[in-house]
Write a structure and sequence with these properties.
single chain, about 220 residues, alpha/beta, Rossmann fold, five-stranded parallel beta sheet, two-stranded antiparallel sheet, about 15% strand
Length: about 220
Protein backbone atom coordinates (compact mmCIF):
# COMPACT_ATOMS: atom_id res chain seq x y z
CA UNK A 1 0.00 0.00 0.00
CA UNK A 2 2.59 2.54 1.04
CA UNK A 3 4.89 1.65 -1.84
CA UNK A 4 2.11 2.24 -4.33
CA UNK A 5 1.18 5.47 -2.57
CA UNK A 6 4.78 6.66 -2.87
CA UNK A 7 4.88 5.98 -6.60
CA UNK A 8 1.54 7.73 -7.05
CA UNK A 9 2.88 10.78 -5.20
CA UNK A 10 5.96 10.80 -7.45
CA UNK A 11 3.77 10.51 -10.55
CA UNK A 12 1.59 13.40 -9.40
CA UNK A 13 4.64 15.59 -8.83
CA UNK A 14 6.07 14.69 -12.21
CA UNK A 15 2.75 15.84 -13.69
CA UNK A 16 3.22 19.12 -11.78
CA UNK A 17 6.71 19.49 -13.24
CA UNK A 18 5.37 18.95 -16.77
CA UNK A 19 2.69 21.58 -16.24
CA UNK A 20 4.75 24.18 -14.39
CA UNK A 21 8.40 23.77 -15.36
CA UNK A 22 8.69 22.50 -18.95
CA UNK A 23 8.59 25.89 -20.65
CA UNK A 24 11.38 27.09 -18.39
CA UNK A 25 13.35 23.87 -18.87
CA UNK A 26 13.14 24.36 -22.64
CA UNK A 27 14.29 27.97 -22.36
CA UNK A 28 17.27 26.96 -20.22
CA UNK A 29 18.15 24.22 -22.72
CA UNK A 30 18.23 26.79 -25.51
CA UNK A 31 20.42 29.04 -23.38
CA UNK A 32 22.75 26.12 -22.68
CA UNK A 33 22.91 25.14 -26.36
CA UNK A 34 23.96 28.68 -27.26
CA UNK A 35 26.61 28.56 -24.55
CA UNK A 36 28.02 25.30 -25.93
CA UNK A 37 27.96 26.69 -29.47
CA UNK A 38 30.15 29.55 -28.22
CA UNK A 39 32.64 27.30 -26.41
CA UNK A 40 30.90 27.27 -23.04
CA UNK A 41 30.23 24.38 -20.69
CA UNK A 42 27.53 23.06 -18.38
CA UNK A 43 28.33 22.49 -14.71
CA UNK A 44 26.34 20.92 -11.88
CA UNK A 45 26.90 21.69 -8.22
CA UNK A 46 24.93 19.02 -6.38
CA UNK A 47 24.26 19.39 -2.67
CA UNK A 48 23.41 15.83 -1.67
CA UNK A 49 21.28 14.32 -4.44
CA UNK A 50 21.60 11.58 -7.06
CA UNK A 51 22.86 13.88 -9.79
CA UNK A 52 26.52 12.96 -9.45
CA UNK A 53 25.79 9.34 -10.35
CA UNK A 54 23.08 10.02 -12.93
CA UNK A 55 24.67 12.85 -14.88
CA UNK A 56 28.14 11.34 -15.38
CA UNK A 57 28.79 8.82 -18.18
CA UNK A 58 25.31 7.30 -17.94
CA UNK A 59 24.22 5.06 -20.82
CA UNK A 60 21.97 7.13 -23.05
CA UNK A 61 23.23 10.26 -21.38
CA UNK A 62 25.27 13.17 -22.68
CA UNK A 63 28.94 13.99 -22.24
CA UNK A 64 27.81 17.50 -21.53
CA UNK A 65 27.91 18.29 -17.85
CA UNK A 66 30.65 18.48 -15.26
CA UNK A 67 30.13 17.87 -11.56
CA UNK A 68 31.78 20.68 -9.64
CA UNK A 69 32.43 21.60 -6.02
CA UNK A 70 31.93 24.93 -4.30
CA UNK A 71 35.66 25.61 -4.68
CA UNK A 72 35.47 24.78 -8.41
CA UNK A 73 32.62 27.25 -8.87
CA UNK A 74 34.69 30.01 -7.29
CA UNK A 75 37.58 29.28 -9.68
CA UNK A 76 37.16 31.50 -12.78
CA UNK A 77 39.38 29.19 -14.82
CA UNK A 78 37.09 26.18 -14.26
CA UNK A 79 33.67 27.85 -14.32
CA UNK A 80 33.84 30.72 -16.79
CA UNK A 81 31.79 33.62 -18.00
CA UNK A 82 29.15 32.35 -20.43
CA UNK A 83 28.98 28.87 -18.90
CA UNK A 84 25.77 27.45 -17.43
CA UNK A 85 25.73 26.33 -13.79
CA UNK A 86 22.99 24.26 -12.13
CA UNK A 87 23.00 24.39 -8.33
CA UNK A 88 20.88 21.65 -6.74
CA UNK A 89 19.75 22.17 -3.16
CA UNK A 90 16.35 21.22 -1.75
CA UNK A 91 16.24 24.03 0.81
CA UNK A 92 18.65 26.46 -0.85
CA UNK A 93 19.68 27.78 2.57
CA UNK A 94 23.37 26.80 2.78
CA UNK A 95 25.64 29.85 3.02
CA UNK A 96 28.40 28.11 1.04
CA UNK A 97 26.06 27.11 -1.78
CA UNK A 98 24.33 30.50 -1.98
CA UNK A 99 27.62 32.39 -1.90
CA UNK A 100 29.08 30.22 -4.67
CA UNK A 101 26.01 30.88 -6.83
CA UNK A 102 26.28 34.62 -6.16
CA UNK A 103 29.95 34.71 -7.14
CA UNK A 104 29.34 32.71 -10.32
CA UNK A 105 26.46 34.94 -11.42
CA UNK A 106 28.52 38.08 -10.77
CA UNK A 107 31.23 36.62 -13.01
CA UNK A 108 28.76 36.20 -15.88
CA UNK A 109 27.91 32.52 -15.44
CA UNK A 110 24.24 31.75 -16.14
CA UNK A 111 23.04 30.29 -12.84
CA UNK A 112 20.06 27.96 -12.37
CA UNK A 113 18.79 26.95 -8.94
CA UNK A 114 17.25 23.48 -8.78
CA UNK A 115 15.33 23.60 -5.55
CA UNK A 116 12.04 23.00 -3.75
CA UNK A 117 9.84 26.09 -3.45
CA UNK A 118 7.84 24.38 -0.70
CA UNK A 119 11.02 23.93 1.32
CA UNK A 120 12.23 27.45 0.48
CA UNK A 121 9.00 28.77 1.93
CA UNK A 122 9.85 27.57 5.43
CA UNK A 123 13.67 27.58 5.32
CA UNK A 124 15.74 30.13 7.22
CA UNK A 125 18.85 31.12 5.26
CA UNK A 126 22.11 30.45 7.06
CA UNK A 127 23.10 33.99 6.08
CA UNK A 128 20.16 36.40 6.02
CA UNK A 129 22.10 38.98 4.00
CA UNK A 130 22.71 36.45 1.20
CA UNK A 131 19.20 34.98 1.39
CA UNK A 132 18.15 31.71 -0.21
CA UNK A 133 19.48 30.17 -3.40
CA UNK A 134 16.66 31.38 -5.72
CA UNK A 135 17.32 34.93 -4.47
CA UNK A 136 20.76 35.05 -6.09
CA UNK A 137 20.48 32.95 -9.27
CA UNK A 138 19.40 34.01 -12.76
CA UNK A 139 16.48 31.58 -12.68
CA UNK A 140 15.21 28.56 -10.78
CA UNK A 141 13.55 25.21 -11.40
CA UNK A 142 11.20 23.80 -8.79
CA UNK A 143 11.64 20.06 -8.26
CA UNK A 144 8.22 20.01 -6.54
CA UNK A 145 9.40 18.18 -3.44
CA UNK A 146 7.48 18.81 -0.21
CA UNK A 147 8.72 20.80 2.77
CA UNK A 148 10.87 18.47 4.83
CA UNK A 149 11.23 16.15 1.81
CA UNK A 150 9.50 13.15 3.43
CA UNK A 151 6.45 12.57 1.25
CA UNK A 152 4.44 9.87 3.05
CA UNK A 153 2.47 10.32 6.26
CA UNK A 154 2.50 7.46 8.81
CA UNK A 155 -0.17 8.55 11.29
CA UNK A 156 0.16 5.41 13.39
CA UNK A 157 3.74 6.33 14.27
CA UNK A 158 3.35 10.08 14.03
CA UNK A 159 6.07 10.58 11.42
CA UNK A 160 6.54 11.37 7.74
CA UNK A 161 9.04 9.31 5.73
CA UNK A 162 10.47 8.52 2.27
CA UNK A 163 12.05 11.46 0.42
CA UNK A 164 11.16 12.57 -3.11
CA UNK A 165 13.81 15.16 -3.97
CA UNK A 166 16.38 12.70 -5.35
CA UNK A 167 14.08 11.19 -7.98
CA UNK A 168 12.47 14.53 -8.83
CA UNK A 169 15.76 16.41 -9.23
CA UNK A 170 17.08 13.70 -11.55
CA UNK A 171 13.85 13.78 -13.58
CA UNK A 172 14.15 17.56 -14.04
CA UNK A 173 17.75 17.28 -15.18
CA UNK A 174 17.02 14.47 -17.66
CA UNK A 175 14.13 16.52 -19.05
CA UNK A 176 16.60 19.39 -19.49
CA UNK A 177 19.08 17.17 -21.31
CA UNK A 178 16.34 15.75 -23.53
CA UNK A 179 15.51 19.32 -24.58
CA UNK A 180 19.21 20.14 -24.91
CA UNK A 181 19.80 17.42 -27.51
CA UNK A 182 17.07 18.92 -29.69
CA UNK A 183 18.32 22.49 -29.15
CA UNK A 184 21.87 21.49 -30.13
CA UNK A 185 20.64 19.64 -33.21
CA UNK A 186 18.87 22.79 -34.36
CA UNK A 187 22.19 24.62 -34.09
CA UNK A 188 23.92 21.95 -36.16
CA UNK A 189 25.79 20.49 -33.18
CA UNK A 190 25.94 16.73 -32.63
CA UNK A 191 26.55 16.00 -28.96
CA UNK A 192 28.27 12.91 -27.60
CA UNK A 193 25.63 10.42 -26.43
CA UNK A 194 26.92 7.44 -24.50
CA UNK A 195 26.15 3.87 -25.59
CA UNK A 196 25.49 1.21 -22.95
CA UNK A 197 28.46 -1.09 -22.43
CA UNK A 198 25.98 -3.91 -21.77
CA UNK A 199 24.85 -4.39 -25.37
CA UNK A 200 26.82 -6.06 -28.20
CA UNK A 201 29.56 -3.68 -29.36
CA UNK A 202 28.63 -1.24 -26.61
CA UNK A 203 31.93 -1.22 -24.76
CA UNK A 204 33.91 -0.32 -27.87
CA UNK A 205 31.37 2.35 -28.82
CA UNK A 206 31.45 3.81 -25.31
CA UNK A 207 35.24 4.19 -25.32
CA UNK A 208 35.11 5.89 -28.71
CA UNK A 209 32.47 8.26 -27.35
CA UNK A 210 34.68 9.10 -24.39
CA UNK A 211 37.48 9.91 -26.82
CA UNK A 212 35.14 12.05 -28.92
CA UNK A 213 33.99 13.97 -25.88
CA UNK A 214 37.58 14.55 -24.77
CA UNK A 215 38.39 15.94 -28.25
CA UNK A 216 35.36 18.16 -28.81
CA UNK A 217 34.13 18.94 -25.31
CA UNK A 218 30.52 18.10 -26.21
Amino acid sequence: MYGELYLTEIKNRLDEIIAAEMDKISQIAQKAASSIANGGAIHILDNGHLLGAEMTARAGGLGLSHMVSVDDVKNPVLVRKGDVLFIASVSGRSKRIVDAARIAKKRGVYTVALTSRAQNGIAEPENKELGLLPDVTDTFLDMHAVAGDAILEYPEIGKRAIPASGILSVAVMWAFKAELIDALHKLGIKPTIYTSVNIPGGEEAFHKELERYAEYGY
